Amino acid sequence: MRDQFLPAFSFQNAIIEPWSLYFDSTIWIVTMGFLVAATCGLIGCFIILRRMALVGDAISHSLLPGITLAFLLTNSRDTLPMMIGAIAAGVVTVALIEAIRQSSRIKPDAAIGIVFSSLFAIGVVLISAYADTVDLDAECVLYGEIGWIPLEDRIVLGGHEIGPLPVIRMAVIGLIALGLLLTFYKELLVTSFDAGLAASLGINPGRYQYGLTLFLSVVIVSSFESVGVILVIAMLIFPGATSMLLTDRLPRILWLSAGFSGLYGLLGFHLATWLDASIAGGMTVVAGIIFTLVWILAPKRGLLVKFVFKSHSKGARTSSIETQAG
Question: Which of 51, 138, 240, 297 is the most buried (most CB within 10 A)?
Answer without folding.
Answer: 240
